[in-house]
């Protein structure tokens, strides 16, 4: 189809495609449109633009140093062998850890970035959601260490991870 970026304008073709979409495809399209809307609006912030929009994960503070995150799973997050793609699980873990720092230290950090992420995949994830329990293990002046356990909706352990983040206090 050879589309030059910024030149595709066949709205009728897009409308025809949308008319044939299944409910699952329409839900995915909604998420992608929200990503595009935010990405081109100039808005940014602690949630970022693309990844946060694609994942649509929720996070709540569990204690002073821990959070619970939920990732709703959509069909396109599965790989060819019928389990949730390892890259989706890794990105979920990375975001859960980064957002845990943001939630546990509101207004105290200017930014944080992943320095190291070690993941042990224990079971192929399936189902409608993944749940991550993330705990801040150590916070220093420039580095933070976190642990994360990801479970499927049946409570089975899917992955266990540790992460080190570089932090910049205000």
From TrEMBL:
Indicate the family of this protein. Belongs to the thioesterase PaaI family.
Cross-referenced PANTHER family? ACYL-COENZYME A THIOESTERASE 13, THIOESTERASE SUPERFAMILY MEMBER-RELATED
What's in the keyword line of the UniProt record?
A: Hydrolase
What Gene3D superfamilies does this protein's entry cite?
Answer: Hotdog Thioesterase
Boundaries of every Thioesterase domain copy = 82-159
- Note the superkingdom of the native organism: Bacteria
- Matches recorded under Pfam families: 4HBT
Q: Where does this protein come from, organism-wise?
A: Pueribacillus theae
This chain's protein is named Thioesterase domain-containing protein
Provide the GO MF annotations for this entry. fatty acyl-CoA hydrolase activity
* InterPro entries given in the database record: ACOT13, HotDog_dom_sf, PAAI_dom, Thioestr_dom
């Amino acid at each position: 189809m050879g589309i030059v970026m910024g030149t595709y304008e066949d709205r009728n073709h897009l409308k025809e495609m949308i008319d044939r979409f299944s409910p699952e495809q329409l839900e995915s399209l909604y998420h992608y449109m929200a990503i595009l809307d935010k990405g081109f609006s100039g808005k940014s912030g602690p949630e970022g633009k693309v990844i946060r929009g694609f994942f649509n994960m929720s996070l709540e503070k569990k204690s002073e140093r821990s959070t619970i995150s939920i990732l709703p799973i959509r069909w396109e997050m599965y790989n060819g062998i019928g389990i949730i793609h390892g890259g989706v699980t890794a990105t979920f873990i990375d975001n859960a850890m980064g957002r845990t720092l943001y939630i546990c230290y509101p207004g105290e950090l200017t930014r944080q970035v992943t320095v190291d992420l070690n993941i042990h995949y224990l079971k192929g994830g399936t189902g409608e959601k993944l749940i991550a329990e993330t705990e801040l293990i150590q916070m220093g002046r420039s580095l933070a260490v976190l642990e994360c356990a990801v479970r499927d909706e049946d409570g089975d352990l899917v992955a266990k991870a540790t992460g080190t983040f570089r932090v910049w206090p205000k």
